[in-house]
Design brief:
The chain is built from nine helices and nine strands. The chain has 238 residues and is α/β, with parallel strands linked by helices. The strands form two sheets. It has a seven-stranded mixed beta sheet, sandwiched between helices. It has a two-stranded antiparallel ribbon with strand order 1-2. Helix 4 links the parallel strand 4 and strand 5. It starts with a helix and ends with a strand.
Amino acid sequence: MDTNWTRVLSGYVNKIVSPDGRQTYESKKKLVDTLLELAELKDTDTVIDIGCGWGNFTKICSELANSVIGIEPNLENLNKAKEHTDSVNVQYVQGSFEQLNCNQKTNKIVSMLTFHQVSWKDKGKSLKNVSDILEKDGHFFLCDTMIMFNPEEKPELFDKVYRYLLKETTPDEIYTQYIEPCLNDNVTYSVADMIENTPEDNRFYFLDELYSWAKKADLKLIKTIEFCPFFGVVVLQK
């Protein structure tokens, strides 16, 4: 596996600033193609795209599926998505993982680079919301940043990942002024350190934690694709 994580990420996503001023990521063709290959969309499918942002992936899905519903919490993003889409089989809804505002049953749900933004206390509830609108044997294709390995089994890898993500996901001014001076090169940082020093809603979740939340929501993990130790795709089935 390529250990140059910046290079790996650049093959799948662009780092951008969204219309509402947040630092976020936009999918590239390589990531889109990976999701499409997994989802195997058919002209009979109704697809729901949670956290659709500007609707780029929603629009692509609309060219392959019978109908698509894009769900997005930010009104400015939602309006931009509507401007970019003229397909008659696309509907946009203002909602979120926590409150979908959509009761449409479907066999395929997709989400890219959004679930990590859900507050910690609502992650389990959010997967239950997904399960509630997913038909039996339906699939949820989740692409997100998450720790894809067991950090207790690989403490040195976790230390490297933690340091990298602190730098890459924190605004430069905050990282340089408040975080970098506190990092100790002679310390191997652990999960306990992350929990102690990171606000709950800002800390990175683990694949094992996702598995636990999914199980409680009647979803089972059937496939994982790891692009790098903290970024990949997970397929869950109802």
